[in-house]
Write a structure and sequence with these properties.
It is a single chain. The chain is of the alpha/beta class and 308 residues long. Helix content is 45%, strand content 13%. The chain contains 11 helices and 8 strands. It has an 8-stranded mixed sheet with strand order 3-4-2-5-1-6-7-8, sandwiched between helices. Helix 1 packs across helix 11 and helix 7 packs parallel to helix 8. It starts with 24 loop residues before the first strand and ends with a helix. The chain binds adenosine-5'-triphosphate and magnesium ion. Adenosine-5'-triphosphate binds next to helix 1 and helix 9.
Length: 308
């Protein structure tokens, strides 16, 4: 399939880093844990790959939860983030594990991105200053053209890894839950976003694509409106809420990590007669499909607006 992001990004013309060719990089981030960053990263990447787009997912988490979503936690080739750390250390191109699914490659996360990363990055930062935050992008650049969609899953409580991702991404997507306490996480990622875009101007091209409601009752419109108000209070009136949301479906979410299958893959099995999978898998797969399409459409729309 042709990449929807093929044409150069008019807003991002700038010498040095070829930003104009990097508008296919999406980051999921929030300063709060457990709001769906990994679930949405994996399922959106899966949907892109399934629709024929060459897709890369980069797991920037010491927890390495993408391994659970995609079922490679115990695979002998799961390097626990060692490859990513090595690239960051040396500046060498990232070396993704290819075809974890058809059209879907993965740069693995895991424990190597914990203390070991912390010590290394502290030294790099002391040496290079804020420029150090471009290190992930530098390692991604030589391979970015191979992909039509790149998705970064990021941790909640590691500002260094968050900034590395924010400095590489064109689009920030913030998943939120409606369970209260969303403000702190939003404020944190909002501040980090401002740091890379406006304060240090390390990545002037990043844009907030939108906020996604995750794990919510599909019909709880009053609660949704309340979350929207909360989001706009913290991030500003212009903060966009995606129309699609990811509904609360705990039984399917548990099965995803137990079986290491994406929601759509569970839904397919259900459709093929596997009654051990709840029928709610289909609804959740539809949520992910709708959201992913909306996310790409909005990114293209914003690019068009910026060019005009
Ligand atoms: N549709 C759903 N309904 C209910 N729970 C879900 C749903 N999808 C995923 N979950 C569960 O919600 C929890 C949080 O999801 P996830 O790990 O994606 O969040 P996260 O923001 O990446 O967390 P962390 O900050 O720890 O990395 C997980 O236990 C996951 O299995
Ligand atoms: Mg996660």
């Amino acid at each position: 399939m042709a990449s929807p992001f093929e044409a150069p990004d008019a807003q991002a013309q700038q010498p040095g880093i070829p930003w104009a060719a990097l508008s296919h990089i999406f980051m999921f981030g929030n300063g709060k844990g457990g709001v769906g960053k990994s679930s949405v990263s994996a399922n959106a990447a899966g949907k892109a790959a399934r629709s024929g787009l060459r897709t890369l997912i980069i797991d920037c988490n010491a927890q390495g939860n993408i391994a659970r979503e995609l079922g490679y936690k115990r695979a002998e080739w799961n390097d626990g983030g060692a490859g990513l750390l090595e690239s960051l250390r040396t500046g060498a191109p990232l070396t993704p594990r290819e075809n974890v699914r058809e059209n879907l490659d993965v740069v693995m996360g895991g424990p190597a991105l914990g203390d070991e990363f912390g010590i290394f990055f502290h030294t790099l930062l002391a040496k290079e200053g804020p420029h150090a935050y471009l290190r992930l992008l530098m390692c991604l650049l030589p391979i970015a053209h191979r992909y039509q969609i790149i998705i970064l899953d990021t941790p909640p409580e590691n500002p260094s890894l968050q900034r590395l991702a924010l400095s590489a991404a064109r689009w920030l997507v913030i998943p939120v839950k409606s369970d209260g306490g969303a403000e702190d996480g939003l404020a944190q990622i909002g501040l980090e976003f401002s740091y890379v875009k406006f304060v240090s101007q390390i990545n002037p091209h990043i844009a907030l694509l939108g906020v996604l409601l995750f794990d919510t009752g599909r019909t709880y419109t009053g609660i949704h409106a309340d979350v929207r108000r909360q989001v706009q209070k913290v991030l500003g009136e212009e903060a966009h809420m995606f129309k699609h949301l990811i509904g609360h479906t705990e039984s399917v979410a548990r099965l995803v990590r137990k079986r290491g299958l994406l929601v759509q893959e569970l839904a397919d099995r259900r459709a093929n007669g596997d009654r051990s999978i709840p029928e709610t898998a289909e609804g959740l797969a539809a949520d992910y499909e709708g959201f992913t399409e909306e996310m790409f459409a909005r990114a293209l729309e914003l690019r068009k607006e910026a060019a005009a």
